[in-house]
Design brief:
heterodimer; A: 286 residues; mainly alpha; MetI-like fold; 12 helices; globular; B: 353 residues; alpha+beta; 6-stranded mixed sheet; 5-stranded antiparallel sheet; 20 strands; 35% strand; binds adenosine-5'-diphosphate; binds magnesium ion
Chain lengths: 286, 353
């Protein structure tokens, strides 16, 4: 009876997972293995075509060149700011609200904003020219533009996540480390960082996955035909410009595998940290 | 003797005055307790001494060194927190070794001192465990060992026993006393538990809302509270309003009211109102219903407390006395309670102190 009840409770979420995630994913993999033209049976033709075409294969490198540095910069900066704010600061609510704004506005509006501010005729350039500082470097419709857009979108998310994590650590841990003779930097390195590391790893993994799937920003403030032709753009073009759902699915699967690889590396690094005695436990007991 | 600590501290958070010119001089080797109800500023005082908070005004001196400009890591204090604050990612050994490691003590010496300290708190064999694998009492021992291994100039303890169960609390209390005496420490202990304060301290500072209400040896505080607040806090559960009727030399007064006439010492003029504070355990049943220090009343409530009974007796004057008696009178019966005049404390009314 008890077990039956539990099963009933779990059932809706299992059905939801199956219908919303497992089925589309499995269907995508199936589709990718059955190319539109050619043999009726399963074949790896789509994957061979992707990896055999330098123009397509290049998208992995392009996406990684955006995703990896951007993730590192985002997490490091978010960590720094969140750590500095761990005991609360003046006007914290206002600042937090401002930071949440980009999340609430959505990708497209943020991209528009970036064009308006950093674009060739944007405020920044006009201001610099008015100040007689000449022509600044191009900041939009290239690699830099996408980096800025990704940072603006993902920093607040990463920051809020880390702030929640860090402020959940018992302040008495830091206090006792100080009284025991540790300077602030030593407290961070020996006490706080080991406790923050698991949360930082999760934040890193999530930001990386979001960065790797970059699409609207790469189109709107990037150079989608060249420097910022990411793997998501390649998949989109196959699906809606070449009407080849099967090939698009194959590219999407490759993208998913790259994201999984990124996650695996992060998890592996965490494991290494744990093996050396750092980062074995989550946030401090409250 | 070194380790003489002198301070005078004020602290306010915004408009809220949490400590108001809190001053004390602690002798080297002395065990001083800050005793007071929750929220009276005990932890704030301790955190100011440790350097974890900055005072709004004041100074801290240890022997000839001024400490208040120094950050916590340069004060050389040991501190034990209520929730132990052990580093969850470090083993017992590494927790205890932390203060030595950050001082760059050699590996061999760290090893030697940590082992010696773990032996002192009876935790040999637990070196490799993590805090989550220890009981509350064991965690507390690790926290104490971690604070003591650096040979602190002053040991600060913030309600270190309040998270332990009653039996363990008694054990650890004895342990703390033993360590304090054995190591010749200067210790400041914070608690809201009067029994802890009385049993551990050389001197007790009773606090209320950031102010010192009384400073004295445990026996002073226990037997001669100077005001109603302290009396109430250390177990004088009965307060009887009286009026001074006669006044002799040396502050000796006689006061009457509620059908009683009691004598004692109090700075009060004839005709002034005073309060008689009486502990429940200083009342006893008597057959001799006459006499000035015998109160007659009706038993209203009897509660068994194991071995003894808590009894409430309503006097004819309306005053209700709480007594702790070895036998249980019948509810509704009329009894006579004798007050031991020598153990009654006469106090000025609240506000006049
Ligand atoms: N950071 C703070 N900001 C504002 N008020 C505080 C702060 N810390 C403590 N207080 C206030 O100071 C008073 C004393 O606190 P505390 O020293 O922790 O009391 P105790 O340890 O005696 O229970 C309390 O009323 C508390 O609300
Ligand atoms: Mg406290």
């Amino acid at each position: 009876m008890k077990r039956g009840g539990l099963l009933l409770l779990v059932l809706p979420s299992v059905v939801y997972l199956l219908v919303m995630f497992v089925y589309p994913f499995a269907y995508g993999v199936f589709l990718s293995l059955h190319p539109a033209k050619g043999a009726a049976g399963a074949s790896l033709a789509n994957y061979l075509a992707f990896f055999g075409d330098p123009w397509q294969l290049r998208t992995i490198a392009v996406t990684a060149s955006l995703a990896v540095p951007n993730t590192i910069v985002t997490v490091v900066l978010a960590l720094t700011v969140a750590y500095a704010m761990r005991r609360g600061i003046w006007a914290e609510r206002t600042i937090t609200a401002l930071l949440v704004l980009p999340i609430a506005l959505g990708t497209v509006l943020v991209a528009e904003g970036i064009n308006g501010f950093y674009g060739p005729k944007g405020w920044l350039n006009q201001g610099l020219q008015a100040a007689g500082l000449g022509d600044p470097p191009r900041l939009t419709h290239n690699y830099t533009g996408v980096m800025i857009a990704l940072f603006v979108q993902h920093f607040p998310f990463c920051f809020l996540m880390l702030l929640g994590y860090i402020s959940g650590i018992d302040p008495a841990l830091e206090a006792s480390a100080r009284v025991l003779g540790a300077r602030p930097w030593v407290v961070f390195r020996r006490v706080m960082w080991p406790l923050i590391a698991p949360g930082a790893a999760i934040a890193f993994a999530l930001v990386f996955v979001m960065n790797f799937g970059v699409f609207p920003s790469a189109v709107l403030v990037g150079q989608p035909a060249g420097a910022t032709r990411t793997i998501a753009i390649a998949a989109y073009q196959q699906a809606f410009e070449h009407c080849d759902m099967s090939m698009a699915s194959a590219i999407a699967v490759v993208m998913g595998l790259c994201q999984l690889l990124g996650l695996a590396i992060v998890v592996g690094l965490r494991g290494r940290l744990a093996a050396t005695g750092v980062a074995t436990v989550g946030a401090g007991k409250r | 003797m070194i380790g003489r600590l002198r301070f005078r501290l004020s602290k306010h958070f915004g408009a809220k005055n949490v400590l108001d010119d809190f001053a004390l001089e602690v002798r080297g080797g002395e065990f001083v307790t800050f005793l007071g109800p929750s929220g009276c500023g005990k932890s704030t005082a301790l955190n100011l001494l440790a350097g974890l908070l900055a005072p709004s005004a004041g100074e801290i001196w240890l022997d000839d060194q001024r400490l208040d400009p120094l950050p916590p890591e340069r004060r050389g204090f040991g501190m034990v927190f209520q929730n132990y604050a052990l580093f969850p990612h470090l083993s017992v050994f590494d927790n205890v070794a932390f203060g030595l490691d950050v001082r760059r003590v050699s590996r061999a010496e760290v090893d030697e001192r940590v082992r010696r300290m773990l032996a002192l708190v009876k935790l040999e064999g637990f070196e490799a465990r993590y805090p989550a694998q220890l009981s509350g009492g064991q965690q507390q021992r690790v926290a104490i060992a971690r604070a003591l291994v650096i040979e602190p100039r002053v040991l600060l303890l913030d309600e270190p026993l309040s998270n332990l169960d009653a039996k363990l609390r008694l054990e650890m209390r004895a342990e703390i006393k033993r360590l304090h005496q054995g190591l010749g420490l200067t210790s400041i202990y914070v608690t809201h538990d009067q029994a802890e304060a009385l049993s551990l301290s050389d001197r007790i500072v009773v606090m209320r809302e950031g102010r010192v209400m009384q400073v004295g040896a445990p026996a002073d505080i226990h037997d001669r509270p100077r005001n109603l607040f302290v009396a109430d806090f250390v177990g004088y559960r009965n307060v009887i309003p009286l009026t001074v009727t006669a006044r002799g030399a040396d502050d000796r007064v006689t006061a009457e009211g509620a059908g009683l006439a009691l004598s004692g010492r109090c700075e009060a003029a004839a005709g002034a109102a005073v309060l008689a504070a009486v502990r429940p355990e200083d009342l006893r049943l008597t057959d001799d219903a006459r006499g000035p220090s015998v109160a007659r009343g009706t038993v209203r409530l009897v509660e068994y407390q194991g071995r003894e009974y808590d009894v409430e007796v309503a006097l004819e004057s309306g005053v209700v006395l709480k007594a702790r008696l070895p036998t249980a009178p019948k509810v509704g019966s009329v009894v006579a309670l004798a007050l031991d005049s020598a153990r009654v404390v006469l106090l000025p009314p609240e506000g006049a102190a």
